[in-house]
Please model this.
Amino acid sequence: MKLEEEIKQEKFKSEHHKLMINLLFTSSWLHRLQLSVLRPYDLTPPQYNILRILRGAKGELLSLGEITNRMIDRSSNTSRLIDKLVIKKWVSRKTCSNDRRQSEIGITTEGLQVLGQLDGPIDSITEQFLFLSVKETKEVNQFLDQLRNQNLNQTI
Amino acid sequence: MKLEEEIKQEKFKSEHHKLMINLLFTSSWLHRLQLSVLRPYDLTPPQYNILRILRGAKGELLSLGEITNRMIDRSSNTSRLIDKLVIKKWVSRKTCSNDRRQSEIGITTEGLQVLGQLDGPIDSITEQFLFLSVKETKEVNQFLDQLRNQNLNQTI
DNA sequence: CTACATTAATTGTATATACATATATTTGCT
DNA sequence: AGCAAATATATGTATATACAATTAATGTAG
Model:
């Protein structure tokens, strides 16, 4: 369905305005898709994001701040998210000995196993994007990167 | 900054995978932009969305379900959001006399006033999109509409 | 070396979503 | 009419974000 039908709005003020709403709407849809894949594994999207970041670090331990910097949603409350992952034993956290304000966070073997099981299902979400050519995909990526670099966003 | 720099990830598995992350990341950025504009008016994005829907109805009263259908975020808990807007006196709600299960919800004069004050600031967010040509904007819109209509999403 | 600012992380509280369940009303079947 | 199914909304509880404030450790200026 076109966005107009989805949200029952006959027309938008401009094509640009529609694009803004479309981005938010589509991302909400994508978020629900993620949820449905992660739910059987007792993971939420931000928790999954953290596990992916830690796996990507290839054994290197990361501080909480470093994880936050790498997250898709910057406003995540990483501290409490890590708490929950530690309880599930998918993540380890200990105080950094050099700087005792920091913590050293890593993914456990169990955490890696859960991620492994999820790789397939998550890839199948990515496959939804394959109807776009690589060239088109690059163009949309470039557009999004540019969008975030207009004047106004300096203030955010 | 390119997404790679934003989330400190050197490279993505594919351009399509980057696009998926980019959509989520950019929408989160857009969300924070909205928050910063709405905050001085004591509104949140979903509450603002509801006011916009009611203004768009041009005086027609809408049921709670109808509002939900028109929202950007379908999983919003409209019932409790309306509660808060009623408390602020920006929205009115009464039981529908024909079908007492439904409610008839409308925007108040005060609600319209708040919206009026916000039109400028919100438009300035939309202006961030103007660096794209109308043709390109249409293409991205079409892409997003198509994306949501691949096989998998039937299940969601 | 002490006092003050800075930094890293945690915590408190309000708002919102996710999902299941409950309540009230209406519809439809016999 | 009587009763089950369907519909519209509300509520309970867990998770997460938003923003402010706090705590603990470190850095630094004098």
In short: Residues 32, 35, 39, 44, 63-65, 77-80, 83, 99-103 of chain B lie near DNA strand D (CB under 10 Å from a C1'). Chain B touches chain A through 65 residues (CB under 8 Å). The helical segments of chain B are 3-6, 15-38, 45-56, 64-70, 78-87, 109-126, 134-147. Confidence is low (pLDDT under 50) at residues 152-156 of chain B.
